């Protein structure tokens, strides 16, 4: 209890300093740095103003096209594109996305491992190791192609025709070749994929929709979770409640109210972690506490003073309509590292496997904690603390910031995706970012990243607005802001990029600060715990598969 009290006392001090910094910069809507260029980070922790002090002119650009990609790099591009196609149809479901990606990236690794002198696969161990004479780059690439194709066919059945007609043919795969003859790379790829697919069909995710407790649909909840209060009832501020969204197909249609996403995810098998018990968390402050009120007030202040730069940060880390979630985002950062350090096939396979694995493992651990604490989101906290009162906040596209009722308060996001449909604590963005950044650091041998993300402020939320409209105050267009919405976001280190991801969730109005801070710590702890297991697979020291 004493440690918990000290912890919250520390948070109170940081929040006081943060809110003071925000209020000091409110006069011109958060865009009042000395040059008036809209690049002031402002808001919340005085976190990211230091980024612009670095000379980034020679830093490479995030997510640039690779001039000479390895087969693994090219396959990852197809994995991300296939995931984005599903997101186009059903929306972003980050836990499911991460599992889909780890299956494809693990299939890639397991096929590659058969042609390595030491590495062992995750399902068949070293049983399928090929003779030294067969360990050629061409055989590795062919086995990978067949293994990844089979994985994609399984997790994206609705895209089967596109995968077989477009993806497979691009990489020289014959979809009809189902050989399991491991004396050929085709058979090797098919064999490792079959073992992995069979394992994942019963990994607790309910991919097939046939597990006890589900409703017959793929990935349906098997725990029977229900929110403590339904929409329309008086909320319990210490528990999560659903939020309705505008229909993305037609805003005039009845609003959509998504259920809590995958409450059963705690049951899904991980790659580098055996169980979640070792990662128990203290939980968020209670709604009745002074600490919670301070955290909510910080979120309100940040929402009411977002600078152009902050809006860019929120959208960069939130991703767009074809979002591949935090797993896809950090696999893109892994691709940056691959280009920077000129990795080849072997390094890429190990790197992408590790990042896909930590993203998946982090989501599983995070989701257990989310549904243990079942905590609410700023959307409802603001309505609870300021019921019937007015606050300053984001007023909608092209409207800047206005004094609005608490019931009108809205995160910086489109009405088609107001806030992620699941409990808040701990933040999934922060947990996966903390874990993925730590793995990138461990893999590369250091924290240096040094990339620049090119963004356009408001491109996902206020695409048709001028900067003057975006930063308006009480209906009056802003004057001393730049006309350009172009932004350069510096990514100097892996750890600071993860901190930016975490901070973006508070700035965007999706989380209170404690969700993010504790999420970062949790993700880093998961990574340090799982890293030896990931590495053991390519070092050949992993235990026999269970």
Describe the structure.
The structure is a single chain. The chain is mainly alpha-helical and 546 residues long. The chain has helices at residues 2-24, 71-90, 94-113, 137-155, 160-170, 185-200, 290-304, 308-318, 325-340, 345-373, 378-385, 428-444, 467-470, 494-508, 513-539; strands spanning 390-394, 401-405, 448-456, 486-493. The model is unreliable at 1-50 (pLDDT under 50).
Describe the secondary structure blueprint for this structure.
Blueprint (H helix, E strand, L loop, with lengths): L1 H23 L46 H20 L3 H20 L23 H19 L4 H11 L14 H16 L89 H15 L3 H11 L6 H16 L4 H29 L4 H8 L4 E5 L6 E5 L22 H17 L3 E9 L10 H4 L15 E8 H15 L4 H27 L7
Antiparallel strand pairs: 1-2, 3-4
Radius of gyration: 23 Å
| Major sheet attributes | 2 strands, antiparallel
* Beta-strand content: under 5%
- Low-confidence runs of at least 5 consecutive residues: 1-50
Shape: globular
Order of helices and strands: HHHHHHHHHHHEEHEHEHH
Give the overall average pLDDT. Answer: 91
Q: What separation lies between the terminal Cα atoms?
A: 39 Å
With helices defined by DSSP (H or I, 4 residues minimum), what is the helix count?
15
Strands across the major sheet, in which order?
1-2
Percent helix, as a range, is 40-55%
What is the number of beta strands? 4
| Structural class based on helices, strands and sheet pairing | mainly alpha
